[in-house]
Protein backbone atom coordinates (compact mmCIF):
# COMPACT_ATOMS: atom_id res chain seq x y z
CA UNK A 1 0.00 0.00 0.00
CA UNK A 2 1.05 3.60 -0.47
CA UNK A 3 1.07 5.91 2.55
CA UNK A 4 1.60 9.66 2.18
CA UNK A 5 3.32 11.20 5.21
CA UNK A 6 2.50 14.81 6.14
CA UNK A 7 4.69 15.80 9.11
CA UNK A 8 5.46 19.41 9.97
CA UNK A 9 9.06 19.07 8.88
CA UNK A 10 10.36 22.29 10.42
CA UNK A 11 10.30 20.61 13.84
CA UNK A 12 12.23 17.40 14.31
CA UNK A 13 9.73 16.19 16.93
CA UNK A 14 6.87 16.00 14.41
CA UNK A 15 9.12 14.64 11.69
CA UNK A 16 10.75 11.95 13.82
CA UNK A 17 7.47 10.44 15.06
CA UNK A 18 6.20 9.91 11.52
CA UNK A 19 9.62 8.63 10.48
CA UNK A 20 9.55 6.00 13.25
CA UNK A 21 6.21 4.67 11.98
CA UNK A 22 7.27 4.94 8.33
CA UNK A 23 10.30 2.72 8.94
CA UNK A 24 8.03 0.07 10.46
CA UNK A 25 5.51 0.35 7.60
CA UNK A 26 8.30 -0.09 5.08
CA UNK A 27 9.59 -3.11 6.99
CA UNK A 28 6.10 -4.60 6.59
CA UNK A 29 6.34 -4.13 2.83
CA UNK A 30 4.44 -0.87 2.28
CA UNK A 31 5.51 2.26 0.42
CA UNK A 32 5.79 5.57 2.29
CA UNK A 33 6.30 8.90 0.54
CA UNK A 34 6.96 12.07 2.54
CA UNK A 35 5.88 15.64 1.75
CA UNK A 36 7.78 18.60 3.17
CA UNK A 37 10.02 21.52 2.39
CA UNK A 38 12.36 22.21 5.33
CA UNK A 39 16.06 21.33 5.44
CA UNK A 40 15.23 18.65 8.01
CA UNK A 41 13.77 16.40 5.31
CA UNK A 42 17.40 15.33 4.85
CA UNK A 43 16.82 13.00 7.81
CA UNK A 44 14.06 11.35 5.76
CA UNK A 45 16.07 11.18 2.54
CA UNK A 46 18.97 9.59 4.41
CA UNK A 47 16.62 6.76 5.36
CA UNK A 48 15.85 6.15 1.67
CA UNK A 49 12.36 7.67 1.50
CA UNK A 50 11.17 9.85 -1.37
CA UNK A 51 10.19 13.41 -0.48
CA UNK A 52 7.93 15.64 -2.55
CA UNK A 53 7.80 19.40 -1.96
CA UNK A 54 4.79 20.97 -0.26
CA UNK A 55 4.06 24.36 1.26
CA UNK A 56 4.44 24.52 5.05
CA UNK A 57 3.83 27.40 7.48
CA UNK A 58 6.91 29.46 8.29
CA UNK A 59 8.10 28.35 11.77
CA UNK A 60 9.03 31.89 12.84
CA UNK A 61 5.49 33.00 12.09
CA UNK A 62 3.82 29.94 13.60
CA UNK A 63 5.85 29.66 16.77
CA UNK A 64 6.07 33.43 17.08
CA UNK A 65 2.27 33.55 17.27
CA UNK A 66 2.18 30.67 19.73
CA UNK A 67 4.88 32.12 22.00
CA UNK A 68 3.14 35.49 22.09
CA UNK A 69 -0.03 33.77 23.28
CA UNK A 70 -2.10 34.37 20.14
CA UNK A 71 -5.05 31.99 19.99
CA UNK A 72 -5.27 32.88 16.31
CA UNK A 73 -2.09 30.98 15.55
CA UNK A 74 -2.43 31.12 11.75
CA UNK A 75 -4.25 33.32 9.25
CA UNK A 76 -7.14 32.00 7.16
CA UNK A 77 -5.20 32.54 3.94
CA UNK A 78 -2.36 30.33 5.23
CA UNK A 79 -4.74 27.49 6.02
CA UNK A 80 -6.30 27.76 2.56
CA UNK A 81 -2.86 27.69 0.96
CA UNK A 82 -2.02 24.53 2.92
CA UNK A 83 -5.33 22.98 1.92
CA UNK A 84 -4.67 23.63 -1.77
CA UNK A 85 -1.15 22.20 -1.49
CA UNK A 86 -2.46 19.07 0.28
CA UNK A 87 -5.03 18.40 -2.39
CA UNK A 88 -2.51 18.77 -5.21
CA UNK A 89 -0.10 16.26 -3.65
CA UNK A 90 -2.82 13.79 -2.67
CA UNK A 91 -4.34 13.79 -6.17
CA UNK A 92 -0.90 13.38 -7.69
CA UNK A 93 0.26 10.45 -5.53
CA UNK A 94 -3.13 8.75 -4.96
CA UNK A 95 -2.25 7.27 -1.55
CA UNK A 96 -4.29 4.63 0.28
CA UNK A 97 -3.76 6.56 3.52
CA UNK A 98 -2.46 9.94 4.66
CA UNK A 99 -0.50 10.02 7.93
CA UNK A 100 0.01 13.48 9.42
CA UNK A 101 1.71 14.98 12.45
CA UNK A 102 1.28 18.70 12.98
CA UNK A 103 -0.43 19.24 9.59
CA UNK A 104 -3.66 20.94 10.71
CA UNK A 105 -5.08 21.14 7.18
CA UNK A 106 -5.06 17.34 6.74
CA UNK A 107 -8.52 16.52 8.21
CA UNK A 108 -10.10 18.89 5.69
CA UNK A 109 -8.01 17.97 2.65
CA UNK A 110 -8.46 14.22 3.16
CA UNK A 111 -12.22 14.74 3.40
CA UNK A 112 -12.20 16.64 0.11
CA UNK A 113 -10.13 13.96 -1.62
CA UNK A 114 -11.95 11.04 0.05
CA UNK A 115 -8.75 9.46 1.39
CA UNK A 116 -8.40 7.76 4.75
CA UNK A 117 -6.53 9.88 7.25
CA UNK A 118 -4.61 9.04 10.41
CA UNK A 119 -2.75 11.46 12.62
CA UNK A 120 -0.14 11.27 15.36
CA UNK A 121 -0.90 13.69 18.17
CA UNK A 122 -0.51 14.18 21.89
CA UNK A 123 -3.50 13.67 24.16
CA UNK A 124 -3.15 17.31 25.27
CA UNK A 125 -4.01 18.45 21.72
CA UNK A 126 -7.34 16.66 21.53
CA UNK A 127 -10.86 17.47 22.67
CA UNK A 128 -10.73 14.37 24.90
CA UNK A 129 -7.93 15.53 27.19
CA UNK A 130 -8.76 15.11 30.86
CA UNK A 131 -6.55 17.96 32.03
CA UNK A 132 -6.99 21.64 31.15
CA UNK A 133 -4.52 23.16 28.75
CA UNK A 134 -4.71 26.45 30.63
CA UNK A 135 -5.63 25.80 34.28
CA UNK A 136 -8.01 28.65 35.14
CA UNK A 137 -8.67 27.47 38.70
CA UNK A 138 -5.27 26.26 39.89
CA UNK A 139 -4.91 29.41 41.99
CA UNK A 140 -7.34 27.80 44.45
CA UNK A 141 -5.26 26.06 47.16
CA UNK A 142 -5.96 22.36 47.91
CA UNK A 143 -6.89 23.20 51.49
CA UNK A 144 -9.74 25.29 50.12
CA UNK A 145 -10.96 22.75 47.54
CA UNK A 146 -9.64 19.21 47.65
CA UNK A 147 -8.51 17.91 44.26
CA UNK A 148 -10.60 14.79 44.93
CA UNK A 149 -13.78 16.74 45.66
CA UNK A 150 -16.71 16.66 43.24
CA UNK A 151 -16.73 20.45 43.01
CA UNK A 152 -13.11 20.41 41.84
CA UNK A 153 -13.90 17.82 39.17
CA UNK A 154 -16.79 20.02 38.04
CA UNK A 155 -14.44 23.00 37.82
CA UNK A 156 -12.03 20.98 35.68
CA UNK A 157 -14.85 20.07 33.28
CA UNK A 158 -15.91 23.72 33.14
CA UNK A 159 -12.28 24.73 32.51
CA UNK A 160 -12.00 22.29 29.60
CA UNK A 161 -15.29 23.45 28.08
CA UNK A 162 -14.42 27.15 28.32
CA UNK A 163 -10.89 26.91 26.93
CA UNK A 164 -11.97 24.78 23.97
CA UNK A 165 -14.96 27.00 23.24
CA UNK A 166 -12.79 30.11 23.30
CA UNK A 167 -10.08 28.60 21.10
CA UNK A 168 -12.56 27.24 18.55
CA UNK A 169 -14.40 30.57 18.30
CA UNK A 170 -11.22 32.59 17.82
CA UNK A 171 -10.03 30.17 15.12
CA UNK A 172 -13.50 29.78 13.62
CA UNK A 173 -12.14 29.23 10.11
CA UNK A 174 -11.99 25.48 10.81
CA UNK A 175 -15.68 25.27 11.72
CA UNK A 176 -16.62 27.47 8.77
CA UNK A 177 -14.74 25.26 6.32
CA UNK A 178 -16.29 22.18 7.91
CA UNK A 179 -19.75 23.55 7.20
CA UNK A 180 -18.88 24.60 3.67
CA UNK A 181 -17.27 21.25 2.86
CA UNK A 182 -19.95 19.23 4.69
CA UNK A 183 -17.40 17.16 6.60
CA UNK A 184 -18.49 14.04 8.49
CA UNK A 185 -17.34 15.62 11.73
CA UNK A 186 -16.77 19.27 12.57
CA UNK A 187 -13.09 20.17 12.40
CA UNK A 188 -12.17 22.77 15.02
CA UNK A 189 -9.04 24.46 16.29
CA UNK A 190 -9.10 22.00 19.18
CA UNK A 191 -9.19 18.82 17.07
CA UNK A 192 -7.50 19.97 13.84
CA UNK A 193 -4.36 17.93 14.61
CA UNK A 194 -6.27 14.67 15.07
CA UNK A 195 -7.10 12.10 12.41
CA UNK A 196 -10.25 12.08 10.31
CA UNK A 197 -10.41 8.28 10.67
CA UNK A 198 -7.66 7.16 13.06
CA UNK A 199 -5.80 9.03 15.82
CA UNK A 200 -2.60 7.66 17.33
CA UNK A 201 -1.91 9.15 20.76
CA UNK A 202 1.87 9.24 21.24
CA UNK A 203 1.36 9.14 25.00
CA UNK A 204 0.64 6.84 27.90
CA UNK A 205 -2.52 7.37 29.95
CA UNK A 206 -0.55 7.45 33.21
CA UNK A 207 1.18 10.62 32.02
CA UNK A 208 -1.56 12.23 29.90
CA UNK A 209 -5.02 10.92 30.78
CA UNK A 210 -8.08 11.35 28.57
CA UNK A 211 -11.85 11.09 28.97
CA UNK A 212 -14.62 9.62 26.79
CA UNK A 213 -12.06 8.45 24.24
CA UNK A 214 -13.63 7.14 20.97
CA UNK A 215 -12.70 3.72 19.60
CA UNK A 216 -10.77 5.37 16.74
CA UNK A 217 -8.30 6.89 19.22
CA UNK A 218 -5.43 4.67 20.34
CA UNK A 219 -2.75 5.13 23.00
CA UNK A 220 0.35 3.73 21.32
CA UNK A 221 3.04 5.09 23.63
CA UNK A 222 5.80 7.58 22.83
CA UNK A 223 7.10 7.44 19.27
CA UNK A 224 10.83 8.01 19.11
CA UNK A 225 13.01 7.59 16.07
CA UNK A 226 16.23 5.76 16.82
CA UNK A 227 18.98 7.93 15.41
CA UNK A 228 21.55 6.52 13.01
CA UNK A 229 23.93 9.40 13.67
CA UNK A 230 27.49 8.27 14.27
CA UNK A 231 28.89 9.35 17.67
CA UNK A 232 31.28 12.32 17.60
CA UNK A 233 35.05 11.90 17.83
CA UNK A 234 35.07 12.75 21.55
CA UNK A 235 32.70 9.88 22.43
CA UNK A 236 32.88 7.95 24.73
CA UNK A 237 33.58 10.61 27.29
CA UNK A 238 36.60 10.48 29.53
CA UNK A 239 35.61 12.87 32.30
CA UNK A 240 35.93 12.99 36.08
CA UNK A 241 33.23 11.53 38.29
CA UNK A 242 31.26 14.79 38.34
CA UNK A 243 27.61 14.59 37.25
CA UNK A 244 26.89 14.65 33.51
CA UNK A 245 23.99 16.76 32.24
CA UNK A 246 22.50 16.58 28.74
CA UNK A 247 21.05 19.85 27.43
CA UNK A 248 18.83 19.81 24.35
CA UNK A 249 16.33 22.51 23.38
CA UNK A 250 14.94 20.67 20.38
CA UNK A 251 14.52 22.59 17.14
CA UNK A 252 12.02 25.22 18.34
CA UNK A 253 14.08 26.79 21.10
CA UNK A 254 15.05 30.40 21.67
CA UNK A 255 18.48 31.31 20.29
CA UNK A 256 19.30 33.72 23.14
CA UNK A 257 19.10 30.77 25.52
CA UNK A 258 22.43 29.50 24.20
CA UNK A 259 24.21 32.83 24.66
CA UNK A 260 23.36 32.70 28.37
CA UNK A 261 23.96 28.97 28.65
CA UNK A 262 27.69 29.03 27.84
CA UNK A 263 28.90 31.08 30.84
CA UNK A 264 26.53 29.17 33.11
CA UNK A 265 27.94 25.79 32.08
CA UNK A 266 31.58 26.86 32.17
CA UNK A 267 31.39 27.59 35.92
CA UNK A 268 29.01 24.78 36.91
CA UNK A 269 29.79 21.85 39.19
CA UNK A 270 28.81 19.37 36.44
CA UNK A 271 30.00 18.42 32.96
CA UNK A 272 27.55 18.85 30.10
CA UNK A 273 26.71 17.77 26.58
CA UNK A 274 24.67 20.25 24.53
CA UNK A 275 22.82 19.81 21.24
CA UNK A 276 21.75 23.05 19.60
CA UNK A 277 19.47 21.68 16.88
CA UNK A 278 21.37 23.95 14.49
CA UNK A 279 19.90 27.02 16.19
CA UNK A 280 23.09 28.60 17.50
CA UNK A 281 26.78 28.77 16.70
CA UNK A 282 27.63 30.97 19.70
CA UNK A 283 28.09 28.15 22.19
CA UNK A 284 31.67 26.92 22.18
CA UNK A 285 32.93 23.58 23.52
CA UNK A 286 35.30 23.28 26.47
CA UNK A 287 36.94 19.82 26.34
CA UNK A 288 36.46 17.96 29.59
CA UNK A 289 33.68 20.34 30.64
CA UNK A 290 31.27 21.29 27.83
CA UNK A 291 30.68 19.31 24.61
CA UNK A 292 28.60 20.88 21.81
CA UNK A 293 27.05 19.38 18.68
CA UNK A 294 24.16 20.36 16.40
CA UNK A 295 22.64 16.86 16.61
CA UNK A 296 23.46 13.69 18.52
CA UNK A 297 22.03 10.26 19.20
CA UNK A 298 19.87 11.26 22.16
CA UNK A 299 19.51 7.72 23.48
CA UNK A 300 23.26 7.25 23.55
CA UNK A 301 23.79 10.46 25.54
CA UNK A 302 20.81 10.11 27.88
CA UNK A 303 21.87 6.64 28.98
CA UNK A 304 25.16 8.15 30.19
CA UNK A 305 23.67 11.32 31.70
CA UNK A 306 22.34 12.00 35.19
CA UNK A 307 19.83 14.74 34.29
CA UNK A 308 18.21 15.88 31.04
CA UNK A 309 17.61 19.61 30.53
CA UNK A 310 15.22 20.37 27.69
CA UNK A 311 12.52 22.70 26.39
CA UNK A 312 9.76 20.52 27.79
CA UNK A 313 8.97 18.87 24.46
CA UNK A 314 6.83 15.76 24.77
CA UNK A 315 9.21 13.54 22.80
CA UNK A 316 12.31 14.58 24.71
CA UNK A 317 10.59 14.06 28.06
CA UNK A 318 9.51 10.56 27.09
CA UNK A 319 12.98 9.80 25.76
CA UNK A 320 14.50 10.84 29.10
CA UNK A 321 11.94 8.77 31.00
CA UNK A 322 12.68 5.72 28.85
CA UNK A 323 16.16 5.89 30.39
CA UNK A 324 14.82 6.63 33.88
CA UNK A 325 16.35 10.11 33.97
CA UNK A 326 14.81 13.14 35.73
CA UNK A 327 13.98 16.20 33.65
CA UNK A 328 14.50 19.94 34.04
CA UNK A 329 12.33 21.82 31.57
CA UNK A 330 12.71 25.38 30.31
CA UNK A 331 9.51 25.69 28.23
CA UNK A 332 9.12 28.32 25.52
CA UNK A 333 5.59 27.62 24.21
CA UNK A 334 2.28 26.68 25.92
CA UNK A 335 2.48 22.99 24.88
CA UNK A 336 5.79 22.67 26.68
CA UNK A 337 4.47 24.45 29.77
CA UNK A 338 1.58 21.99 29.80
CA UNK A 339 4.05 19.10 29.61
CA UNK A 340 6.16 20.46 32.45
CA UNK A 341 3.14 20.88 34.71
CA UNK A 342 2.64 17.13 34.36
CA UNK A 343 6.35 16.48 34.98
CA UNK A 344 6.20 18.42 38.24
CA UNK A 345 2.85 16.91 39.26
CA UNK A 346 4.24 13.40 38.80
CA UNK A 347 7.46 14.22 40.62
CA UNK A 348 10.14 13.39 38.07
CA UNK A 349 11.41 16.86 37.32
CA UNK A 350 11.36 20.60 37.76
CA UNK A 351 10.36 23.51 35.55
CA UNK A 352 12.48 26.64 35.19
CA UNK A 353 11.04 29.84 33.77
CA UNK A 354 12.90 30.99 30.64
CA UNK A 355 12.74 34.66 31.56
CA UNK A 356 14.13 33.95 35.03
CA UNK A 357 16.96 31.89 33.54
CA UNK A 358 17.87 34.63 31.05
CA UNK A 359 18.00 37.15 33.91
CA UNK A 360 19.89 34.83 36.27
CA UNK A 361 21.58 31.89 34.48
CA UNK A 362 22.97 30.53 37.77
CA UNK A 363 19.45 29.29 38.53
CA UNK A 364 20.11 26.38 36.18
CA UNK A 365 22.95 24.98 38.29
CA UNK A 366 20.85 25.49 41.43
CA UNK A 367 18.01 23.48 39.90
CA UNK A 368 20.36 20.70 38.77
CA UNK A 369 21.73 20.48 42.31
CA UNK A 370 18.20 20.28 43.73
CA UNK A 371 17.16 17.49 41.34
CA UNK A 372 20.35 15.49 41.88
CA UNK A 373 20.25 15.76 45.68
CA UNK A 374 16.61 14.64 45.95
CA UNK A 375 16.46 10.98 44.89
CA UNK A 376 12.66 11.08 44.63
CA UNK A 377 12.98 12.67 41.18
CA UNK A 378 15.02 9.77 39.83
CA UNK A 379 12.82 7.20 41.60
CA UNK A 380 9.68 8.70 40.02
CA UNK A 381 11.33 8.72 36.58
CA UNK A 382 12.25 5.06 36.94
CA UNK A 383 8.65 4.14 37.80
CA UNK A 384 7.51 5.61 34.47
CA UNK A 385 10.46 3.91 32.77
CA UNK A 386 9.05 0.55 33.88
CA UNK A 387 5.65 1.42 32.35
CA UNK A 388 7.20 2.54 29.06
CA UNK A 389 8.96 -0.80 28.61
CA UNK A 390 5.61 -2.43 27.87
CA UNK A 391 5.06 -0.28 24.76
CA UNK A 392 6.28 -0.87 21.21
CA UNK A 393 4.84 2.29 19.70
CA UNK A 394 6.09 2.13 16.12
CA UNK A 395 5.00 -1.48 15.54
CA UNK A 396 1.65 -0.94 17.26
CA UNK A 397 1.01 2.20 15.19
CA UNK A 398 1.87 0.52 11.90
CA UNK A 399 -0.42 -2.43 12.63
CA UNK A 400 -3.32 -0.13 13.54
CA UNK A 401 -2.85 1.82 10.29
CA UNK A 402 -2.69 -1.25 8.06
CA UNK A 403 -5.67 -2.88 9.79
CA UNK A 404 -7.66 0.33 9.23
CA UNK A 405 -7.12 0.10 5.47
CA UNK A 406 -7.68 -3.64 5.00
From TrEMBL:
One of its GO terms (molecular function) is UDP-glycosyltransferase activity. Residues 277-390 form the Erythromycin biosynthesis protein CIII-like C-terminal domain. The keyword Transferase applies. Keywords: Transferase. InterPro entries: EryCIII-like_C, UDP_glucos_trans. Pfam families: EryCIII-like_C. Coiled coil: none annotated. The keyword Lipid biosynthesis does not apply. This is Glycosyltransferase. It comes from Geobacter metallireducens (strain ATCC 53774 / DSM 7210 / GS-15).
Amino acid sequence: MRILAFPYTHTLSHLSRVLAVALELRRMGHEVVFAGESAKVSFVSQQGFDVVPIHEPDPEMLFGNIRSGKLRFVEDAELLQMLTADIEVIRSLKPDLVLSDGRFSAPLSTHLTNVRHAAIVNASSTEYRALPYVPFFDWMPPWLISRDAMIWKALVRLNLFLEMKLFDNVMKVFKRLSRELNTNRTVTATNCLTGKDITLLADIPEYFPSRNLPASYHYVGPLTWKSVLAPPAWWPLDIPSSPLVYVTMGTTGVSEFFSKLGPSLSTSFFSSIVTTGGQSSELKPMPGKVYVESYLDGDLVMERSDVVICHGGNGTIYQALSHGKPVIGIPTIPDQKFNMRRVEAMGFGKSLDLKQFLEKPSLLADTVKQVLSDHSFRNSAQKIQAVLKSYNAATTSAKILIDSIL
